[in-house]
Amino acid sequence: MTDVFTGKYKLIKSTGFDEFLSELGVRPIKRQLAKSASPEIEIERSGDAWHVKSKAGLGSSEFIFKLGEEFEETRQDEAKVRSVVVQDGNKWTQTQTPVHGSKVVTIVREFKEAQMTTSVTVGSVTAVRVFDRVV
What we know:
InterPro entries: Calycin, Fatty_acid-bd, ILBP, Lipocln_cytosolic_FA-bd_dom. By secondary structure, this protein is mainly beta. It is 13% helix and 57% strand. It has a 10-stranded antiparallel sheet.
């Protein structure tokens, strides 16, 4: 392993995710699907660019970014957002700012040798999701 960030991760624990999705405005049926999924995330590095791929059930998403540089993506509530990821030691903090309306989301990913803990916050609601490193 070349760094603490790259690898494949599988969800093992999730708390507060339904409340987070509800606060974000995700409809009940889509929330149920999201909660029942067991996402796998793969993080790769190419030079100074990072590629994050997420697979869960029928859906998948991916984005490429460089630390500190703004990029566009579409998040779970289908809002188009401008994101920026900054690094502080073994943590990445991503801020998703909607292009039109909607709510700002902050994602903090903390990487350890065998796990990644992700805290996602919208308004006063925070969900915590723990992923084990599988590769």
